[in-house]
Amino acid sequence: MDRRKFIKSVAASAAAVSMPCFSIAKSRNANEKINVAFVGVGGIGAMSLGGLKNDCADSVNFAALCDVDTKYSAGNVKKFAPDAPFFTDYRQMLDKMGKDIDAVCVSTPDHSHFKIAMDAMECGKHVAVQKPLAHNVWQVRQLAKARKYYGKQQTVMMNQGHATDQIRLLKEWADSGVCGDFSEVHVMCGGPNWKSIYFKKPASYPFGKEDVPSNLSWDLWINQGKFTDYNSIYHPLTWRSFWDYGTGMLGDWFCHTGDAPVWILDLKDPVSVELVSAKTNFDPKVFIPDSSIVKWTFPKTDKRPECVMYWYDGGQEPLTRPHDFDEGRKLPTAGMFMIGSKHTIETGVRPNFNPCMTNTAFFKEFKRNMPPKTIPRIPRGSLYREWIDAIKGDGPECGSNFGYAAQLTEVALLGCLAQRFGGKIEWDAENMSAKNRSELNAFIKEPERSGWESKAI
Ligand SMILES: NC(=O)c1ccc[n+]([C@@H]2O[C@H](COP(=O)([O-])OP(=O)(O)OC[C@H]3O[C@@H](n4cnc5c(N)ncnc54)[C@H](O)[C@@H]3O)[C@@H](O)[C@H]2O)c1
């Protein structure tokens, strides 16, 4: 990658560039702390600040914080790192403090994950990014390539469940063969809850322009996404309702609830993804649905038969009642079933929530003689510890590194395309294209805003 060009593009748009940002993370002695910078600290950024503080206090310094909203982020700045240098533009942060930052933790809205993560990797930083990894299929594949291209930098997507003991337990159960072959998966999530803080519907659409508050840099918030005039319906949190910036319930939750089946059954490169049904008001190409059912078909591999997977949001019951489901029990509208030819594995909305065999009598018997624990566990089941240990060379690469994270997120993003554009998409994974729907190309790789373009690896 052409570093000179990168610096030039940063310099063109970010003021006061004083040093090249690409100081590769320096070599360190075993006791030296990892200097972590945080981009996006106002919302769930608090979880990564808290997670690193609780699980890795002995190993990290909070080197710098960055947020485009000085008011929304103020509470977390005060709580976690009141004395750390604060920036509103992450490009200036990387330029000014490049030498003093080893790793960057990105907790911004979905549409800006890619550019921030890529720029940080270009600057030689280890990177942790919130889920979903990015906003379109091309971006997740680029980040998967970046992991290999940069080689030594440790990457992780922050789907916390992937570091837990429970998801390992589920894989050991499935791999033992006790459930038989898996050919059907159901992933259910309750929302969107339009009364919650996360989603908002306008009284009517289209809606107007509002004045940008003085505490917010709207241009930086947009990042490389589609430019839209400011309206308070977007920020904070409720950007989730709009496809241009968020990815709806599916993008929000699939990387948790669908993590176990994607990992265990190696679900990738579906031959098709289809919107089975949906309810929406306003324009479905702009707004996420109120409820939907999506179906993917994954081809047979040498380890399992062809597998279909269904996603449900909006409080719908799964279309299939597992053959071994307890008599009289109501089907859940949130959770996950991996239906095996002999037995069904079930979890709550995260892989570490209530992992069990769906049939109560069988599970009781199974627990008396569980398969041996063969998959190494992560200290404290903590993704933060896993990432920092990998950076320090004290542990292996994270399980949800950008290679696996891209696989998991791509499945979710293909489902989002079906939710947004309807019908059936025949997916050509090798050529990254919808065989029967060329009009979707502009969403498989979205246009990048002028001045914010990235260079393909
Ligand atoms: N892992 C989890 O369990 C979990 C839970 C909730 C949210 N998330 C993910 O975290 C991300 C953020 O979600 P949220 O609910 O915190 O949203 P939010 O809108 O509440 O917070 C985003 C923060 O990032 C800041 N920001 C936006 N653009 C920025 C930019 N370009 N540079 C610097 N700061 C910027 C905002 O001002 C705000 O402080 C999303 O991708 C979401 O899916 C993950």
What's the topology here?
Elements: H1 3-13, E1 34-39, H2 45-56, E2 60-66, H3 74-80, E3 86-87, H4 90-97, E4 103-106, H5 113-122, E5 126-129, H6 137-150, E6 155-157, H7 165-175, E7 182-188, H8 218-222, H9 248-257, H10 259-265, E8 272-279, E9 291-298, E10 307-313, E11 335-340, E12 344-347, E13 356-357, H11 360-367, H12 383-392, H13 402-421, E14 424-428, E15 433-434, H14 441-444
Parallel strand pairs: 1-2, 1-4, 2-3, 4-5, 5-6, 7-10
Antiparallel strand pairs: 7-11, 8-9, 8-14, 9-10, 11-12, 12-13, 14-15
Helix pairs in contact: 5-6, 6-13, 9-13
The structure holds nicotinamide-adenine-dinucleotide.
The site of nicotinamide-adenine-dinucleotide (NAD) has 30 residues, from helix 8.
Report on this structure.
- Helices cover 30% and strands 16% of the residues.
- By secondary structure, it is of the alpha/beta class.
- It folds into two domains: 3-162 and 393-403, 3-Layer(aba) Sandwich (Rossmann fold); 165-196 and 241-377 and 410-444, Dihydrodipicolinate Reductase, domain 2, CATH 3.30.360.10.
- The strands form two sheets. It has a nine-stranded mixed beta sheet.
- Helix 6 (137-150) runs antiparallel to helix 13 (402-421).
- Nicotinamide-adenine-dinucleotide binds at residues 39-45, 66-69, 72-73, 90, 107-110, 112, 130-131, 158, 160, 220-221, 223, 235-237, 252.
